[in-house]
Design a protein that fits this description.
Layout: H1 3-10, E1 28-31, E2 34-37, E3 43-44, E4 47-48, H2 60-82, E5 88-99, H3 107-122, E6 129-135, E7 144-152
Parallel strand pairs: 5-6
Antiparallel strand pairs: 1-2, 2-7, 3-4, 5-7
Helix pairs in contact: 2-3
């Protein structure tokens, strides 16, 4: 078991299976020393546990937990490309999208769920640049979507 997966186990987490694409794309692709994930929804066992807009049908706290799930799904997508998460040199960038009620402005707090998970799992390698964006709607009426860019160590 890799050091990263051992850390996940210490946190009581397991790396899920890669979420199959919902359309014509790959969950993650490698270009040189970088891996880019597609936007990851908070899918667990092939379905969303919650749908709707944050600040309306979904609370910010629930959405923050969903962002954690998105980040875990992103790590699974990275592993599917590189085989070993110990090859992650650092998380470079996280982009989070929050399906928001018109008056909701707490997008950064929601996406903290993803950022905090990456820090818990990867330590200093999980510190990254980030954008947290409010949007009108996301695929399948998901409350959040997260994409991640990581830099790899040389093979």
């Amino acid at each position: 078991m890799s050091a990263v997966e051992s850390r996940l186990a210490e946190l009581g987490l397991t790396l899920p299976a890669v979420v199959p694409p919902l359309a014509a794309y790959q969950p993650a692709v490698q270009s040189g020393v970088y891996v880019y994930t597609s936007g990851q929804l908070p899918m667990v066992d092939g379905k969303l546990s919650l749908t709707g807009k944050v600040g309306a049908e979904v609370t910010p706290e629930e959405a923050k937990d969903l962002a954690r799930t998105c980040a875990l799904n992103a790590l699974a997508a990275v592993k599917s490309v590189v085989g070993d998460l110990d090859r992650v040199a650092r998380v470079v960038k996280v982009v989070g999208f929050v399906a928001s009620a018109p008056d909701f402005t707490g997008q950064p707090g929601v996406i903290n769920g993803a950022s905090e998970l990456l820090g818990e799992v990867l330590g200093d390698k999980g510190v990254h640049a980030r954008s947290a964006v409010g949007v009108a709607v996301l695929p399948l009426d998901a409350p959040v979507e997260v994409e991640v860019q990581v830099e790899l160590t040389e093979a």
